[in-house]
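My current task is to audit a protein record that another person submitted. I need someone to confirm that the token line plausibly describes how this chain folds. Take the sequence as given and treat only the tokens as open to question. This is what I was given:
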Amino acid sequence: MADHLLKASNVRQQLRPLLKWAGGKQWLAPSLAQLYNISASTRLIEPFAGGAALYFAAGPERAVLGDANRTLISTYRTLTRHPAKVFAELGDMRIDADTFYRIRAERPALKARIAARMIYLNRTAFGGIWRVNARGEFNVPYGCKPETSLPTLPTLRAYSIALKRAKFYASDFEETFSEPSGPADFIYCDPPYTVTHNNNGFLRYNETIFRWNDQLRLADLCNSAASRGRRVVVSNAAHRDVIRLYDKSLFFGFVIQRNSNLAPQIEYRKPQDELLLVSKSLGFTRQRISNLLQKMELLQTTPRSRGLRW
């Protein structure tokens, strides 16, 4: 797959995600980028942008980034236009517990302050988790590492430049899918889901973060896009009910493994299985994709994983 190796390094500086995100794919983005043939005509579409790990790893010329988290999309938009203003707002945000709880309690109206607050809380909250309660209030406690720092102005300007190539949607994923797409586009879907479930508990655990009806809507959109020749990759929970939603004539299915870093105690940060669906419209054989995943030490070959893939 050398002909599809990541080419962004030859064009521009690559960036790691600015924001840590639960379920983020920084660990997987380099492998996905190798499935993504970057050219001037290629556009990346991410209906669940989150930390936008693939966008920053692949460095496409054009992209559509959508997310239901309006604060996240507002932060990206503001950073695109006003990195210096965001940096100025970060100036009074010290990294200590007292400052953290003061900033957490704020309800800013200025867009630059909203963006700075999100960056600050994301860097200094426990595990980098962004979580709000039923009233929309951020409720994660303080808990960053001693070496934590806030981004510099040159760093924010680098992200500002990178994000200028993207169009943003603060909306349900279906609206992002409504963006007209062509055969040169690459659609990557990484919906929110938990991997810490057993077969009986899957629906109960996931209903609060991504409803089963949402899974049905997403699968319909992905199957439809793949049937029209669109290039689609989906990350999802490695569960038989999810797998059944995707057309086997349109997708290859693989079980890959990653380590969970959200548990507070190291002994609970166990490897977790996830499902990777790759549309056949990408033009790769199952063996070529398997070889790439094996090279990256991601492919699972346990009896359970063999029963879930196709």
Remarks:
- Residues 212-227 form the longest helix (16 residues).
- Confidence is low (pLDDT under 50) at residues 1-11, 197-206.
- Residues 24-69+166-306 form a domain with the Rossmann fold fold (CATH 3.40.50.150).
- The two ends are 21 Å apart (CA to CA).
